[in-house]
Design a protein that fits this description.
Helix content is about 95%, strand content about 0%. It has about 35 residues and is an all-alpha fold. It has one domain. The model has no long low-confidence stretch (mean pLDDT about 90). It comes from Lampropeltis nigra (black kingsnake). This is Vimentin.
Length: about 35
């Protein structure tokens, strides 16, 4: 159970990091259009 919990936490952290990176890219993309 602990191993699954650790895997789940690392996946959630990766998802948050991807969302953050995507948010930055989206902001840069919008700036280049404007």
């Amino acid at each position: 159970v602990d191993a699954l919990k650790g895997t789940n936490e690392s996946l959630e952290r990766q998802m948050r990091e991807m969302e953050d990176a995507f948010g930055v890219e989206a902001a840069n993309y919008q700036d280049s259009i404007a």
